[in-house]
Amino acid sequence: MSKPKIAIVVGSTRAARFADVPTQWIAKIAKTHADIDVEVVDLRDFPLPFFDEVASSAWAPSQNEVAQRWQKKVAEFDGFIFTAAEYNHGPTAVLKNAIDYAANEWNKKPAGFVGYGSVGGSRAVEQLRLHAVELQMAPVKSAVHIAWGDFLAVRQGEKKLEDIEHLNQAAAALVNDVAWWAKVLKAARAADAIDAEAKAA
Against a cut of 0.85, is the pTM above it? Predict the structure, then answer.
């Protein structure tokens, strides 16, 4: 079986976003993990409108071309790490919208989070974990929370994320968890597909 493919999803599209910094950092760490392949997926490349389909794609095919392209992209992966800025105690609208524009493509795959902002993006991450469960994902316990002091130090150029050891340790734990669950769940999905083919024969 091929190695699980993990997406690092950039969860902000603002021109002045901080998201590129943690994305590059966590992607570099993830790419050192021998058991997974890693790709950065930028929501800027999928300019989705606010959700305006007749129903979730779980129930009816999406009509929007970008939505169709997004769903195909999500389907390529066996697990996800999302960067999660916290706005007003929650995740960014663009990330929640992107999550809503796919359905079955998320199922039975692990999700991990790199939060930043107020209290390390913890409230945004907790909300995203609830969304992940509803989509039959497996949100992992380990997470990265770039707290306000570290966030400001990096934003102002006083430090780099790789200079902050507790964040490096959290990132390593996160990647290890996502890699483990991606491997296990990929095998389980493959077994389900074999069973389904046998029953249909």
Answer: yes
